[in-house]
Structure formats: structure tokens, C-alpha cells
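Private note to self, pasted from the team thread so I don't lose it. C-alpha cells:
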């Protein structure tokens, strides 16, 4: 089993505003990250984290990102290890500043480390340099079996390091990644998250 999740980091906005936007409320319970469909944790660095147990969650749509980023900043990340797809993007004041995507399935014929849109942070160059070194070492080990294109077509590529690029970039900006644990300074144990649930919509009954 691999990760198939999304998460959203909101800078300097109260949790109540985030909850109201998505029609959510606290269930009054705590959980580990991604243990429930939706959970939330406020970080000391000013980022509010919304963990979504589904890749490419509907909460990450451009409509939501544009509206919620007004007067603030959002960074989202989505990752699906089953198809080796990952993406991260940054929105500020209703506009998307950058987006970085890695999609292994679309790179079979023409390999690309990542696709970028806008102006990603300079940290991306350093991240790609480190991943490129790891990928080259892995490719050297596999080269005896098949050339790079054949490995991709046959599913022989054992490791796709560039899958991590959007994830590590989002982590560099927010201090969070789904595959890294957050220390709980108060308890000295794994960080706990607030379980969130949808607020039921009121039914309107027609009287004849």
C-alpha cells in the first residue's frame, strides 16, 4: 500500500475561516495524520494544515484555492504513489504563483523530471539536483537490464526519485510533508490532529 493523499497549508488564517469555507466542523476528537478522511492541525509557524485522505481532493480545486487565498497564502500538495503522480502549488491573494508537477505515466515517451508553471521558489533547483544524483545512481544499477525507455515501458524502473520533487518543495515552504512525522512539543510523541466532519446541509421541505 502506498500514499494517495492531499494536504493544504493555509498561512495566517484562523481555523474557523478555513472550516467555514469548506463547510466543516470539529468532531471533538483527535487522530493521527490521515487516519480519518479530513483532519486539521495548527502549526506554530503560522500554517494551518488540512490533511485530506484522497489524492487530488476536490478541496484543492482552483475555485477553492482562489477564494481561500484572498488576503493570505495557500500551498497545496497531492501525491499518489500508485501511479507516481505528485503536484504542489502556491496561491496568494487569489492568484496562482507557481505549480510543480511530476507525472510518471505521461513521461513514458518523453521523460521530464517535473513540469513547472509560474515562478517556483529557488529551493526547487537544489531539490532537483539532489534527486537527480540519486536517480542517476539508481539508473546506473539498472542499466545492465534495459535502456531507460524500455524500463519505463516494461515497468522495470525500480525507483522514481523525481516523484518527491513537488513534495519536498511544499515541505521546504511549510515545514510539513505527509511522509514525515511532526513532533509534538507538548507531549514528546507523534503530533495529534483534530478530526473534522462536514456540516449537514438543511433540507428544505416543500409543503403543498
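Design output:
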Amino acid at each position: 500500500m502506498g500514499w494517495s493523499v492531499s494536504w493544504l497549508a493555509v498561512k495566517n488564517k484562523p481555523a474557523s475561516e478555513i472550516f467555514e469555507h469548506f463547510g466543516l466542523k470539529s468532531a471533538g476528537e483527535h487522530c493521527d495524520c490521515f487516519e480519518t478522511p479530513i483532519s486539521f492541525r495548527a502549526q506554530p509557524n503560522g500554517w494551518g494544515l488540512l490533511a485530506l485522505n484522497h489524492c487530488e481532493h476536490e478541496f484543492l480545486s482552483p475555485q477553492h484555492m482562489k477564494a481561500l487565498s484572498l488576503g493570505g497564502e495557500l500551498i497545496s500538495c497531492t501525491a499518489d504513489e500508485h501511479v507516481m503522480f505528485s503536484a504542489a502549488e502556491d496561491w496568494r491573494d487569489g492568484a496562482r504563483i507557481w505549480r510543480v508537477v511530476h507525472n510518471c505515466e505521461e513521461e513514458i515517451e518523453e521523460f521530464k523530471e517535473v513540469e513547472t508553471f509560474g515562478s517556483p521558489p529557488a529551493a526547487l533547483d537544489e531539490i532537483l539536483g539532489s534527486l537527480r544524483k540519486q536517480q542517476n545512481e539508481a539508473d546506473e544499477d539498472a542499466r545492465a537490464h534495459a535502456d531507460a525507455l524500455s524500463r519505463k515501458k516494461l515497468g522495470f524502473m525500480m525507483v522514481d526519485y523525481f516523484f518527491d520533487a513537488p513534495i519536498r518543495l511544499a515541505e521546504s515552504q511549510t515545514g510539513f510533508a505527509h511522509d514525515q512525522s511532526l513532533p509534538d512539543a507538548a507531549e514528546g510523541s507523534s503530533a495529534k490532529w483534530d478530526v473534522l466532519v462536514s456540516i449537514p446541509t438543511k433540507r428544505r421541505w416543500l409543503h403543498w
